[in-house]
Write a structure and sequence with these properties.
The structure is a homodimer of 258-residue chains.
Chain A (H helix, E strand, L loop, with lengths): L2 E5 L4 H12 L5 E4 L10 H4 L9 E4 L2 E4 L1 H11 L15 H17 L1 H18 L3 H9 L4 H12 L3 H22 L12 H11 L2 H4 L5 H4 L1 H11 L2 H7 L18
């Protein structure tokens, strides 16, 4: 049995499937894909994932993409490899449904909105530093039309209306999570699940540093306490230490710049 | 064991979880929610689903919402109730991952775009026929901010740019599905799964009638042949016959008007 995990910096989607691999104690080969060099659009990589996106799981030659799908796959393929406290996907149908409710909410109503602000601040700078002819060539190398559009928009700048809408979506999510954590210890119930890993990777880990104006500590104290509980898990702490080649001046997700 | 299914007309999300109930041969109480009377926003219904949306599954008092979550729940809770040909969710991890890849694509890149055209043509007419003060009251009764926004936009009209983007997304999906059906008999492989039910409910069933200008029969002949195979399944045929109170003149989804 051989697992390979192709990923970028330990944030967002790349973090989201790395944490379960480590929580489950699965041995895997880590393959860093350098997004700063656009390796994800290069032929060697699109031969592995035609959509040209990280992360990718290769399990004995079978390719699985999209982090929510990868994480469910790891549960199906390795049901007994679990952290000591509880399985990452609850074994009872209702618990699994609660987990999937949150995964769907995060995938559809959180991920893209935090991402838009990150792209606006970081990828926009990168995109505007590419010479015009080179930028057209870059766009041509991107397989997914939506990603081509996102790069083009990053260069010209996201509209104020789109950024304001993204901010409203993030604030809605903060309030929703804060309310849930008043009722249950973790997002989907009494145990830590893939839903916690999802929200942490796409929002919880960086929201306070990225959006100081939201006053997250005041607005969502339970979320902050939950975030610290997630970050203290050895698997998460280890994942966060993995390779990060982003220039420190551009690390908007990690909150070092705005 | 008692199952109740709260649903509207047999199209889109209401159809999507009704078909698995019937494919699995599960006895359930059907509860029609009249969207034309905005029953989904009324207190008796938001007491059941605070998000004010159909469909809803009630299993012995446990409420499950969101069709992809409901359909996975039915697989977890009733793993042995399956159609004769194959389980709706493949039992091998790779097959389940293929199914989830397609479910995710349909949920995130198809559903809302067909829906936007349907809302533009049908809900727009309904919304514009509501007197101004009554419309504000209607908006106030809608729990989810995104749904409030969708209703307000339906009344004022979706922008040409948004509609054109939605059309492009649907055309991309048609080509992607057509390509897949050149490789496998069903969307996720050799067997009919929840992914087929998902695409059929949100797009496949009505795309040719809703968008004659796309020339679906010419552009996607395999998709048409697949659509007819899905429609011929007794469970699907039975679901399609369930209650439909939409005024015939407004049945844009069923293609009777444009």
């Amino acid at each position: 049995m051989a697992l390979k995990y192709y990923h970028a910096e330990p944030l967002a989607n790349s973090l989201k499937s790395m944490v379960p691999l480590k929580e489950k104690g699965l041995a895997y080969e880590s393959i860093y894909v350098d997004l700063h060099k656009f390796e994800q659009h290069q032929p060697w990589f699109t031969a592995i994932n035609p959509e040209g996106q990280v992360p990718v799981l290769d399990h004995d030659g079978t390719i699985i993409t999209h982090t929510t799908v990868i994480n469910e796959y790891l549960e199906d393929a390795f049901p007994d490899a679990q952290p000591a406290d509880a399985p990452l996907r609850p074994r009872d149908p209702v618990g699994a449904a609660r987990m999937r409710y949150w995964n769907k909410f995060i995938d559809e109503h959180v991920m893209n909105y935090v991402s838009m602000h990150g792209w606006h601040r970081m990828v926009g700078v990168i995109a505007r530093n590419i010479a015009s002819g080179d930028f057209e060539k870059l766009l041509e190398s991107i397989p997914l039309p939506d990603q081509r559009k996102k790069w083009a928009t990053a260069r010209s700048g996201f509209s104020e209306a789109d950024l304001a809408n993204a901010t409203a979506k993030i604030e809605y999510a903060l309030d929703k999570v804060e309310k849930q954590l008043g009722e249950t210890k973790w997002l989907a119930g009494d145990t830590y699940t893939l839903a916690d890993i999802n929200f942490y990777s796409h929002c919880g880990a960086m929201v306070e540093r990225m959006f100081p104006e939201m006053e997250v500590a005041r607005r969502a104290p339970r979320l902050c306490e939950w975030r610290d509980r997630v970050a203290a898990r050895p698997a998460v702490a280890e994942a966060l230490k993995s390779e990060d080649r982003t220039a420190p001046g551009l690390r908007v997700w990690s909150g070092e710049v705005r």
